[in-house]
Amino acid sequence: MAFHGLIRLDQLYDGYRGVFRIGREEILLLQQEGRVYLLDNRCPHQGFPLDRGTLRGERLICPRHGFAFHIERGDCFQASSCSLRIWSVAYQGSVIGVEF
Ligand code: FES
Hints:
Oligomer: single chain
Structural class: mainly beta
Shape: globular
CATH topology: Rieske Iron-sulfur Protein
Bound molecules: FE2/S2 (inorganic) cluster
């Protein structure tokens, strides 16, 4: 496994939303109430970019058809077979990233 740095911790703030491309992966980083979440940026329903979604509490709502995903678990509130991939947050010094 390799560490892929995304952003320095001091650049993050509540409401931050950023998309990072690493190889074929497109990862959405969100910070909400001091917690960082890493999710696939492509909606598992039909691939719409979720960085354009609406965040309501723990739900990220895809603007294309309205499916909502739990930002920590990735499960979909409308269709149990349609879960969003969640990445584990990794740290290296003052950099936050992902390992795969
Ligand atoms: S593409 Fe996201 S809900 Fe359909």
